[in-house]
Amino acid sequence: MAWLAERECWGGDHHTLEQRLFINSIRADAKRFAHAVRGHWGVENRLHWCLDVVFRDDASRLRKGNAPAIMTNIRNLCMNLFEQEPSTLRLSQ
After folding, report:
1. Is 1 helix (H, G, I), strand (E, B) or coil?
2. What is the pLDDT of residues 60-84, one digit of tens each?
């Protein structure tokens, strides 16, 4: 089943309208589909924010050999370890 979703964003006097096609294997009504999409992008946004802001992933200059894959695994390991940390410490800038 395919769903077409539109996203409208306003920022000051800047306006954008994006369309995205989603393909899934479950039958869902619009409300359930919207909840699933928002949940997915919420996870993605938190993950990428953490990689970009905390680990400065976008500023990384590792490009050759196995170094990019190794550092990706190290960053993911660190994020998973911090998630399991029982204290109130959180990853932040």
Report:
1. coil
2. 888 899 998 998 899 889 888 888 8
